[in-house]
From TrEMBL:
PANTHER family reported for this sequence: MIR-INTERACTING SAPOSIN-LIKE PROTEIN, PROTEIN SEELE
Residue span(s) of domain DUF3456: 29-170
InterPro entries, sorted: CNPY, DUF3456
Protein name, UniProt field: DUF3456 domain-containing protein
A Pfam family the protein falls into: DUF3456
Annotated organism of origin: Aristolochia fimbriata
Lineage: superkingdom: Eukaryota
Keywords, comma-separated and alphabetical: Signal
Highest classification ranks of the organism: Eukaryota, Viridiplantae, Streptophyta, Embryophyta, Tracheophyta
Leader sequence residues: 1-25
Length: 187
């Protein structure tokens, strides 16, 4: 009976350890945050000019439309569209070794050209940064969306606002962890 209980406890401990062991985390949060900021920066710079949002759907007694016209640049819709698929886009990133002691997050142009072993590891890193992105947005989304709506977030400021001011994953003096699009031969 005691042997059976000990076996069950051992199995339980092994399951817990294996679960926590397989959940990898992002070691360099600043570099990962920089990658997320770079992807968001791309989204900001690729935005097309949009018309104001016309929220005047009702007519008053004189036949005039009632409601507001909201500038798209300060609308909640803009913030939602910028942040909506951000973490899915992060699955195109992987960790590349730059030197013996330094890695950086890079956007992979094509997963098909990676070797099988490298591809599996690269996909695991992509999942890690996507998960990190989800946690980062969970912590900062409301404040960040508010800053977007106020017009405080401009192209070129995303890294500072997201990684230094809101999440505090980067110190103000640190500037490494920049993101590049690499060719397949670099991986």
């Amino acid at each position: 009976m005691e042997k059976r209980l000990a076996t069950k406890n051992l199995i339980l401990v092994l399951m817990v350890v294996s679960t926590f062991g397989s959940v990898s985390c992002v070691d360099d949060k600043c570099a990962a945050c920089s990658a997320v900021a770079a992807e968001l920066e791309t989204g900001l710079s690729n935005e097309k000019p949009r018309n104001h949002l016309d929220m005047r759907h009702r007519l008053d007694s004189k036949g005039q439309r009632e409601g507001k016209v909201i500038d798209y640049r300060v609308s909640e819709l803009r913030a939602v569209e910028l942040l909506d698929d951000l973490c899915d886009k992060m699955q195109d990133y992987t960790l590349q070794k730059v030197s013996t002691s330094r890695h950086e997050w890079v956007k992979v142009p094509s997963w098909d050209n990676l070797k099988a072993g490298d591809k599996q590891e690269a996909k695991a890193h992509a999942k890690d940064i996507s998960t990190y992105c989800g946690r980062l947005l969970e912590e900062t989304e409301d404040e960040f969306a508010g800053l977007i709506r106020k017009g405080s977030v401009q192209p070129g400021d995303v890294m500072k606002v997201l990684c230094e001011d809101l999440s505090k994953h980067c110190s103000q003096s640190r500037t490494d962890g920049l993101i590049d699009v690499v060719s397949d031969k670099d991986l």
